[in-house]
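Q: Could you write out the predicted structure for this multi-component system? I'm mainly interested in how the pieces pack against one another.
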Amino acid sequence: MRPLREVQAEILGRVPLLPEVRVDPVESVGLALVEPIDAPEDIPGFANSAMDGYAIQAASVGTVPVDLEIIGEIAAGSSAASRVVPGTAFKIMTGAPLPEGADAVVRVEATEAARESIVRILESVRAGEHVRPAGGDLHSGARVFEAGLRIGPAHASVLAALGIAPLVRRRPVVAMMATGDELVPRLTPQLEPGQIRDSNTTLMRGLLEALGCEVADFEIVGDDPGVFRAALDEAAGSADVILTSGGVSMGDYDVVKALLQGRGVDFWQVAMQPGKPLAFGEVSGKPFFGLPGNPVSVFVAFEQFVRPALLAMLGANLLFRDRVDGVMDEPIKAAEDKEVFARVVTERGGDGMLRARPSGGQSSNVLSALALADALAVVPVGRAVLEAGDPVELEMIHRPEARSRAEVLDE
Ligand code: AMP
Ligand code: MG
């Protein structure tokens, strides 16, 4: 068996970078920056009002109340035609450019109408108050993002504000298919003896889409070498990466092994559980991952090998999920010679620590326990058991919303 780290390192060393493309910021979420981003201009580009109110000279309102002459009005998107001078004010809306001569804004709530074209100021302000200075968010020339950053919605919006179409690497197209003559389509109502519904393509598709990949779904290809070969050829012609499930172990009908061993694809036994058998290599020049057949193995192998590899192909700096410290709430047995990824449910204890307990059966076919898990408890090689109370490293795999309406809104 090969150590997990060694296999991960080899895969990352063998996958290519995807081709570079320039994209609109709205198309960039999930992709990684090829180059660092420096601000080409100030954001905001001009000093503007942070409030609806009156643009004035702070010196005019040193003693209040004081009446000032309203000499104009500026809405967001327009600009003032004349200067603010001592004793005058411009009515101004949030986001509108500060008129020349003004150095502060008095909030409308701190004023009252005096006479026609006269506003009474009730509150003194310091110079700069309620003004967003030019470059107050980003100064022209400032480093905004480093290369390798994976772009999220807020990063993309900064790029939009700066008017930048970032250089990224193309969103990968991933072809996926399920081997196995026992498989029938997922919505098959009645199963014949020995048949099972294909659930791996649903799992892989969801994982790939969550990562921002485009999926070419070849669905069930069975165990027939001819059918499998034809699907592989089509996949290699159109996709950047090929994923299969099943057919990589020692069985008589393991079609992936039968067809690809010794032809650019290596078959490994990785010291991890689940997910020991793994095929990796190239098919017609495209990276190929032959994942095991058991659904939980598919998930763990995807997490440990495919996800980091796809992120590396995108040019992202960060490839591996966060690991957080937790404590086992119940004991868990593990294979001593492998790195074990146990499916666990976590809950925050009174001390703030995450407490983990098995989410169900730990065999690699128990899909329901995977679905209920929100973390993988990592049991290192050399440990045969984790006792209740033992510290444990948790890879958080499923942390969407965690607080109910009642917890947040109803006291
Ligand atoms: P294999 O490695 O091809 O022998 O597959 C191991 C086991 O995984 C099979 O016996 C099936 O029970 C299960 N399996 C394989 N492919 C799928 C699939 N697409 N969906 C659900 N279960 C599968
Ligand atoms: Mg099979």
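A: Regarding packing and overall arrangement: Residues 179-180, 246-247, 293 surround magnesium ion (ligand 2) (CB under 6 Å).
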